[in-house]
User: Fold these one by one.
Assistant:
Number 1:
Amino acid sequence: MRVLITGAAGFLGSHLADRFLADGHTVVGLDNFVTGHPDNIAHLMGHERFSFLRHNISDFTYVAGALDGVLHFASPASPIDYLQLPIQTLKVGSLGTHNALGIALAKKARFFLASTSEVYGDPLVHPQPETYWGNVNPVGPRGVYDEAKRFAEAITMAYHRFHGVDTRIVRIFNTYGPRMRPRDGRVVSNFIVQALNNEPITMYGDGSQTRSFCYVDDEIEGIYQLFMKGDSNPMNVGNPVEFSVRQLADIVIELTGTKSSVVSKPLPEDDPKVRQPDISRARKILKWEPAIDLPTGVGRTIDYFRGLMGTDRMVSE
Ligand code: UDP
């Protein structure tokens, strides 16, 4: 297969490119480096089955040659990023998704949307099955991301129903691992980078809010299987084991052996109180479930960030 991956220099996009290349497929990567980083794809430069376009998918996009798949992974995805890039976030979820769907339609390619657990907002149903419609504040600070992704899901289904495009929608829950930006503001990267630098560990609120953290290799395998053998209905892909933010801080402190201590910071507006995927559909249809537990994955992520110690990336990003 020859596939286009938007956001290919991002955290998930770059791992996804690796996964397709490992199976012998050809990848065209596209990124504008707004939140992606060239380091994430440096190892692919010169690969005979990888090519790269520096481009913003929210603008009209021309890709030469046949394509079998279009995987739309371009978007700011960290809360601090989409607060700083609210218009770009709305555009890449709406105009970017429209452009990517247009490419899939023109090329008769399968389309794959990277959606998010944020479509459930601050959920009133727990854990969250795909049939839950969510509890989203459209005008709150997270609305730019949540509503863009909800629109993206709606237009993906419209292309499926109206144009007959073969489509997939994955709802990605909190994922972590190597190639996250050190200072992207998300909880796992923040805690590890703070711990390695012996800075205070910033726990927002009392740390009782929960997330279910999936190691990147598990997430990518679920996504790859969904692309290959799933159907057009949205599918949760994430790790269903739930932790409080306080528990995560304890794990990071233990595994890094840091001198840092936890400091409490204000809880951001509309921060979801709980989040846990119901992955029954993925288990049944993909025969997939995560294999890597949190201490193991956090250990690997610590090793990655240790390798960046002393570089500009630890400070400036
Ligand atoms: N969080 C925290 N300290 C940080 C960063 C995040 O306590 O330095 C909390 C945040 O309030 C949220 C959870 O960790 O409850 C996960 O935040 P993240 O930004 O990783 O993603 P979210 O799941 O909120 O989109």
Number 2:
Amino acid sequence: MSAEKTNQSWGGRFSEPVDAFVARFTASVDFDKRLYRHDIMGSIAHATMLEQAGVLSIAERDAIIDGLTQIQAEIEAGQFDWRVDLEDVHMNIEARLTDRIGITGKKLHTGRSRNDQVATDIRLWLRDEIDVIIKEITRLQEGLLEQAEQHADVIMPGFTHLQTAQPVSFGHHLLAWFEMLSRDHERLVDCRKRVNRMPLGSAALAGTTYPIQREITCRLLGFEAIGGNSLDGVSDRDFAIEFCAAASLAMMHLSRFSEELVLWTSAQFNFIELPDRFCTGSSIMPQKKNPDVPELVRGKSGRVFGALTGLLTLMKGQPLAYNKDNQEDKEPLFDAADTLRDSLRAFADMVPALKPRVEVMREAARRGFSTATDLADYLVRRGLPFRDCHEIVGHAVKYGVATGKDLAEMSLDELRQFSDQIGDDVFAVLTLEGSVNARDHIGGTAPAQVRAAVARGKALLAAR
Ligand code: ARG
């Protein structure tokens, strides 16, 4: 690109062309061209409004809309020549419009600025992205509900400190992830309300002298509200930061989910089987089947946290109103949305295919003294204070470690060494089933409660 060919749209003020490197350095078209559809949508609404406001004639409006529609088709057919010397998506499309329809094309920008235009485009784009992302969340949640329902009776060890704690239903564990995703969904739906406010009409920063009717563009573009201050309208990027914050939380959840899948597919745990299509092998170790999808998602969470930190830093200390800094908002935002959407998609595809190794899980729960709390609770029901029960059971576990026996494997006489309050009804509470069934309240791990939670989850998804 030669310096002579650089952008002419502000040419009047300049006595020499922009330096060729500076033109490339300041250009954003390489990444903001993905806003083309929303840019054209915004321009069509703006032109429609300008006609109703008496600024454009009907013929001018129609020529503009027609030209923009054809430009969209050109772009989608891969026939559009994106020019770096035209800086960004907005000026590329406007220049092409003037090529196609002549002088009328130059009237489109009446009463607006790229400052309100770009803020409008990003919001329209992000609104669509959020809609796709929340559908993927729902799809993943549906998979979790199906699995939870099917495996409500499968027992695994529940962990604290990654040490065996108490037996839980595998379905119950799956539903913990369901809860996290429900909050992610709520957050994105809430964030969308603030994304969906219209800056168009703010113009460069102070509004415009033309008799624009912002209610019209607001309605045409499906915005929920009109931004109430033009300075704020062109400079506010809270909505992008908020999205990245919600996306970061969702990725943090997926990274925790990933970590458990990585652990559980290891030979040491061997709790679940991940179908081959979500794994890869090693180029050197023939025995390897690596859980690549969860590992990659765990790693990708960092990009999204980076986007959040980047955008907060971008906005910190910026004076009103628009500053060129803001051009830096797009790449992190795009990347955060792409990363979250793809990670959710991979998980939504993978979760229905997870297969628990029921016997391995059960054996692990049985081996880890996971019903020790149940024994203590049994003694409490016999009238002993909980602290004393805790100590009695501690001795029983110590004996079990020394003799290689789980609590349920000890004879009544062996158990009675630790308390004469223990009777032969104790074995009912020492079984895994007895333990999970006893936690029979809302949010507890009893299989009946898991099934009730699945039903609540299904109702929640049906109401979306
Ligand atoms: N490419 C610019 C951006 O992404 C568009 C707005 C430019 N406005 C300006 N006055 N230079 O922010």
